[in-house]
Amino acid sequence: MIATESSLHIDVFLNSCVEQKIPFALYKLPNTAQSKLIVSFEKTEVRKKIDFDECGSGFVMAPYHKENELPYFYKNDFEVDFEDITEIEVPEDLRDLLGISKTNLADKFSLKLKSENTNSDSHKRNVEEVINSIQKGEAKKVVLSRTKHLGEITENNFFRGFQNLSKSNPTGFVSLVNVPWKNQVWLGASPEILVSQDENGMFKTVSLAGTQSAFDKDGNEIRPIDALWSHKEIEEQAFVGRYIINCLKKIRVREFLEEGPKTIKAGNLLHLNTSYTIDTKEINFGNLSSVMLNLLHPTPAVCGMPKDAAEAIIDRIEDYDREFYSGYLGPVNIQNRSQLFVNIRTMKIENGQVFAFAGGGITEDSDPEKEWNETEIKLQTILKSFS
Ligand SMILES: C=C(O[C@H]1C=CC=C(C(=O)O)[C@@H]1O)C(=O)O
């Protein structure tokens, strides 16, 4: 695109939106090169229960705790699709709202890493406590997570962070979301579909769990087809699949296509993945996505089994608020498609400080040391944003 009077560098535009507290969501769908930017002109927060038939088109950002907090909804007042461009045409009214300054924008998204070593003791103690609860019969699987203060942003170019993550995660849902009401920006690359429904009424969800590095100890890439999985990981993933099938049983949906488990690559990691596809037209269940969204979230990939017991254990043992981590996010009713992803492999930037999040499924066979290492390699995914 040729730069004109009303065109702006996308990085200048995004940073100005953050400064001026204008809500936006920038995202790239898995296995595509195209990105989309959605900007809402609504300065006050819009929050609602997500029913795909009623909520209109826009972007959804939902927290983990569904009881306390409704999802945020970003109406698509302004939309741009782009692939290689760096300039976007900005309408006059939005330009005025932004008060753009073209100067002083960093060329990088860089981080001053926190110098002190992270102490693994408290997470390992928490893992042990969860294993004890499981041994006492309180639950079968619990996803225990932690947050890590990575450090302070030194050069602030959010678009560069998004581009870096898109490059290192071609198969992920990469997103950069400004949540001005909380003074937070969230950046992540999710490997996990929660619910999606396309223009032909095809519904999809997945069971994703089990984690290993995509590289062997010599740094060579492991082909997904060669990956070996332990009993613990196979069981951990099966819990999620069983839960999805139980949700379908509850609403009497019997016709679905189950594919997997297969090993998939997500950035620097490998996971076990099974997908479930349903033709909503064939079974005459147009609103399946809304019903399933409500039943599925939070799945045992981020919470546990049985759900209520796992939720209570998480609330008791985790010593921080997950906020949007392990919630869900994505476009709704955009080009007749809705695609919501689980908000994992993510970080928040708040007052220039960066906090990343990672969790792992604990079963009675878990080993605290290995669980700690798993959260560390998951955090590596998000560190790829910086350069
Ligand atoms: C909860 C996370 O990952 C989930 C998704 C895939 C594999 C997982 C696991 O192996 O434990 C988790 O269930 C996270 O990355 O923070």
Automatic annotation (TrEMBL):
InterPro entries: ADC_synthase, Chorismate_C, IsoChor_synthase. Gene3D superfamilies: Anthranilate synthase. The keyword Repressor does not apply. Pfam families: Chorismate_bind. GO terms for molecular function: isochorismate synthase activity. It comes from the Bacteria. It catalyses: chorismate = isochorismate. It is an enzyme of class 5 (isomerase). The keyword Translocase does not apply. Its EC number is 5.4.4.2. Residues 121-378 form the Chorismate-utilising enzyme C-terminal domain. Transmembrane segments: none annotated. Keywords: Isomerase. Belongs to the isochorismate synthase family. PANTHER family: ISOCHORISMATE SYNTHASE ENTC. This is isochorismate synthase. It comes from Lacihabitans soyangensis.
